[in-house]
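Lab notebook, bench 4. We co-purified these components, and the gel suggests they stay together. Before we commit to crystallization screens, I want a quick structural picture of the whole thing.
Request: model the full complex, all chains together.
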Amino acid sequence: MRKFNTKPGTTPGGPCMRRLVLPALAVSAGLLLGPGCDRDQVSHASVAKEAAPAMPAPSHASAPMAMPPGAMPPGSMPGGQLPPPPHPTGKGALKWTLPKGWTEAQGGGMRYATLTPPGAGKVEMSVVVLPGAAGGELANVNRWRGQIGLQPLDDAALGQARKAVKSKAGPVSVYDFTSAGETRTRMVTGLLATAEGNTWFFKLMGDAEPVGKAKPAFMKYLETLHLD
Amino acid sequence: MIKRFALRSWNFLASLQVTIVALVLLMALVVLCTLAQTELGTLGAVNAYMRSFLVWRQVRGLPFPLPLFPGGALVGLVLVANLTAALIKRFEFNRRKLGLWIVHAGLILLFAGEFATGAFQVDTRMAIEEGQTVNFLESYRQMELGLSDVTDPAHTEEYGLPDPLLRAGAAIRVPGTPLTIKVKQFYVNAQLAMRAAGDPPSMANMGVGANVKVTEAPPAASDKEVNLTSAFIEPVAGGTSYGTWLVSSGMGAPQSFIHEGRTYVLSMRPRRYYLPYSVTLKKFSHDIYMGTDIPKNFSSLVHLSNPARGEERDVLIYMNQPLRYDGKAFYQASYGKGDTLSILQVVANPGWLLPYISCALITLGLLVHFCITLFNAIRRRQLDGETV
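Here is the predicted assembly.
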């Protein structure tokens, strides 16, 4: 074995080297420990809506090319996603007359349709249909109330809050709730259980003032609901 | 006494025996890590064996895991300390040893590069469909609770609460909002099913989670499995509770609540890293050899837009030709959706140059050492000739 030039009994390394060792170790430790300090904080970004569409989910048919070790395999968005139920068609599809000045757009995902009243202010109406009782009236009403920070109702209070509107498709239960706070949010909602076994939800929601202006037209709209 | 102990320790640290033991341990770790990949997956095995200081294993009959073997990080650290000590102790700084100095510096840099990679490298991906513009990266493995303030028609305020923060009992203040997120339960992986008649009530009283049964599952072990990360959370603002929600990467439907006129959408999603620039996929190409299904080329023609730097340019990314930009390398990694979706693997590694520099140093050092030895041998032969 080759012996290097070391004199027995001498202090290892030169004085210059010894001075460098501790700072070097300190810097190394800093480099190793430093990165973990700010990695797991709440992040924030302001994103222009048109510039950043929703990230597309890679299809399950996607294929690997040069995935690195440990990388998520292709088609790797979490499986088991709960898809929205299919929208009813034919006789099960609800029809209505659009109030004057309102616009209608086809919904995406869970939504069946999106209706927008005229005028300024933040207000929008959504139509959602789910098969069956969809959890029941009390649960849904309390879910809506919770969305705007209101306490849940019991059965007795639910009956007091309910207003019935007649339509050709059946009676619609209407509720009107307004949140607390400086900027108040108001929602006027309707539930309709049809003979086909579906529950339809109509939700007019937005800032309290424009919702109040749109409410009369919304109530008329509910009266026009009908099945073929 | 202390001085003698320090000297003996120093001699031990700089000894060749330590080098040999460390190298043998490294070889053993490579074998063990390779075998463990069948059980833990590639990343799990690398993290458990190579990037940890100790390899922990659960021993039957014990309620806690035991450290059974030194991890790659510990062995690497010992090897670096050993090399450095040997370098300081044994070498003279003269021209004759210059080559060996350079070789050892290269070796130390190689280890430092691996440590830097382990500590700093961030692997993410960018999935873009043709015609789409994306300005964020997604983590392969980490999840986050996404809180999106969608009130403004022009902008979305995106907040991300990374999964290390999401632990049961945690109350996380979201800066810039009046919100605090209370985490009631957190599952690294879970199985979701619609609640049946006899099932206990859900912890969630808001959103779709009220009708979903959540069962904890062991974390995904192999690369082919994906965690369905889930949590029961309670947003609180201004003293008002907005109920308990189930958020899960297994649920696609958006869930939202309104506070003071601002609409917040909740989601569990892969952790996002927003960029100050955007990438638009103009065309993805999947070429095959004529008459076969054998791939010939995969490429993505993207448009890079960085208004802050006034950059607007097209870039072609193809196999082994990544786009290197802003300290990141965008590699062509995968595709899907009938060849309209391109998935780019994005690697940010500030130490990516270190292995190249260290290899160049080692080569240079060996070359220098060889030249010096050759020169000395020639000179010695000449001197011997003159003497004779």
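Chain A has a mean pLDDT of 73. Worth comparing against the SEC data before the next meeting. Chain A is about 25% helix and 25% strand.
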